[in-house]
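Backbones bend. To wit:
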Amino acid sequence: MKALLFLCLLISSAVFAYAEYDTTAPENSPPVSQNSAAIPLDPNTMIKVVIEGVVLCQDCGTARGTWSLLNSKPIKGAKVSVTCRDSKNRPAGFYAAETDDNGYFYCPFDVARFNNYFGGDPTKACFIRLLSSPDQGCNALTNINWGIVGAPASFAGKLFTGPDYTTVVLEAGALAFRPGWCPISG
């Protein structure tokens, strides 16, 4: 009888522990930028969104296991995906961008109405993910600045007004790959 009582207690504990554990899958949406300034435009303004950023190689000696980019180096030819969602939360644009000699990428989108972006704001609708690194010594993905799940784009005040549309430049935080193997320093 004691064994049966013990078994019932064990099972009920497991059920309660399981019930407290959230088994729902996380949303597919990446985090939204919280540090972004508001874009000072009318919702009906025609805009061209441009997203820029850098991709780096994280240093083994100073940053292993952290989000530090101290002593990191740019990666030429790294690829990122840039996605923006429309007002109904559907992918409205997807581009693969490649970095230059300085690890910099620049990705322009088509002209659209400001409020055609998800949440009526491109900073809520656009995100960037790491794809690949051509550097065989530095091609392991990191989630620094959300490079795996989707780095949010933020507005840092760059607006350029033209005759037909306004260009809004959004920035991704620095994204990084890391070496697949780092020696243990002693």
Observations:
- The mean pLDDT is 82.
- The chain has three helices and eleven strands.
